[in-house]
Amino acid sequence: MDQPLEPGLYIVATPIGNLGDISLRAAGVLRGVVAVACEDTRVTGKLMRHLGVKQKLVRYDDHASEATRDYLLGLAAQQPIALVSDAGTPLISDPGYRLVRAARERGIAVTSLPGPSAAVVALTLAGLPSDRFLFAGFLPAKDKARRAVLEELGGVQATLVFYETAPRLADSLTAIGEVLPDREVAVARELTKKFEECRTGAPEDIAAYYAAHPPKGEIVLLVGPPGEAAMPDEADTDALLRAALVTLKPSQAAAEVARATGHDRKALYARAMELK
Ligand code: SAM
Known about the structure:
CATH class of the largest domain: Alpha Beta
Bound molecules: S-adenosylmethionine
Distance between the termini: 81 Å
Strand content: 15-25%
Radius of gyration: 26 Å
CATH architecture of the largest domain: 3-Layer(aba) Sandwich
């Protein structure tokens, strides 16, 4: 028997393809709430049947009327209710932001239960640097806008994570190949499902693969970070130091060249004294 839940809004992450990924806590909360706000009552109904629970389902998305939001928050002020999306974590390219914001503004308790999200599953699978990543939702469908986003984000020192659809994958890979040609990309498809796959490589190679094997199903597209700029070698560094010494004292020249190159300031100072 689960503990009775406190009133409030419970954000519940649900599986992205494998029903076994529902957490014990998520199942307990879905059993304990009085209503579940969801994108599609048929999709969530299937999950509820799998869990053997029969709660009131209320269709909700961020374009829902104020009246629907008011109704849900009126309930949440007195009793526990849940928000789920069709799959994965609510609010991550899914509805919920407005509801959470309005709940917080009204002083209603909000609790978020961690669980599956395709972006995180893909990041942990692809073997691209994971210390810094930038999740940017879906790339725009129109070519000009898509390229503008890639240009905007291309300089960010982080792995880029996008949601993608099978029909648009080829165009996105072409755009990445042209805007960010030296990057490694990864296509993570059908995660947690029977035909899960993850392919990494140069954009043109991955594009060629999927031209020959048209993809089906759900896709996360990742772009590796820009490579580290190569540190200038000794001759280049000497040239920079000589140029700086024309107008600066050795200590100032060393500091400036250290800033520009990333080389050690003390070593540069010693070299500046030799060159002077
Ligand atoms: N909120 C969800 C989450 O946390 O993963 C994402 C919802 S978004 C509307 C749907 C997109 O997520 C799909 O178009 C696809 O890009 C990605 N996605 C969801 N499930 C996936 C899966 N099993 N494998 C790969 N990508 C998936």
